[in-house]
Amino acid sequence: MSDEVMRHPGTADTAADPWASFLRLTPARIGLARPGASFATSALLDFRLAHARACDAVHAALDEPRSIADLKALGLPVLTVASAVTDRSQYLLRPDLGRSLATSAIDILDPHAGHYDLAVVLTEGLSARAVQAHACPVLATLAPTLAREGWRTAPIVLVRLGRVAIGDRVARALGADSVVILLGERPGLTAPDSMGAYLTWNPGPQTTDAERNCISNIRPDGTGYAEAALRIAHLLREMRARRLSGVALKDSSDTMRSITSDLSEPSS
Question: What CATH code is carried by the domain that includes residue 218?
């Protein structure tokens, strides 16, 4: 069996490689050449590099001073608190502690408690790199939209070593009707910097994942910043109007854009 040349996305010649047209559409590892029963050396090295980047993303810490400065540059007030986790190792081993606030966090949040429509929470999740890179660009588009629509938004809360459900605790402590938490998703072998947004109406201690809406893969090569902000804003409006979230609330933002586009086109 003869050796084949490794095929790279976007570089293959369609005439010479039937996989070329597919490889231009996805970064996924498809059509990998095999010299015999093994992967080509270049494919194996590429896989190991991607795996190393994913591991680095899981263990990396968030640059809090930089994140706070970026948020303040947008004109957004910021509070910084911690989860019940003591360090990164414990965070990975004890997801339950990442869902709870440290005692000191309550003391920080209490003076800012009130009656808000929305709490926005940021935490590194499983990829600090994702939140560091993508949270502020999304909020730069989302915050002005919410302000124009009259949303009463609590100060942004940056939580150290938090999980998705910690947003519920923050929202309850601040007195917010809904919460959006932006956090790094579990790194994959093609995207170590993917961010997710989880939206919940009337969050509390008994909230389940079925009561959340999720917008995943937020990054320039996935769900773009403007797209993510549009979908978050649309879901928040629907949540407030219908007073629910999760599996009972469908994301109809694509349909609404299609209708708006059709109405804006001149008739023939």
Answer: 3.40.50.11240
Of 160, 148, 162, 78, nearest to 120 by C-alpha is: 78
Q: What is the pTM of this model?
A: 0.81
Q: Do the domain assignments include residue 45?
A: no
Q: Which of 131, 118, 163 is nearest to 67 (CA)?
A: 131
The three-state secondary structure class of 200 is strand
* Residue pLDDT, tens place only, 46-88: 778 877 777 777 778 889 999 999 999 999 999 999 999 999 9
Burial label for 190, CB within 10 Å (0-12, 13-18, 19+), is middle
pLDDT digits (tens, 9 = 90+) for 88-104: 999 999 999 999 999 99
* Rounded CA separation 9/21 (Å): 9
Kindly report the number of other CB atoms within 10 A of residue 226's CB atom.
13
| Number of domains making up the chain | 1
Q: From the CA atom positions of the chain, what is the Rg in Å? A: 21
The parent domain of residue 69 ranges over 64-251
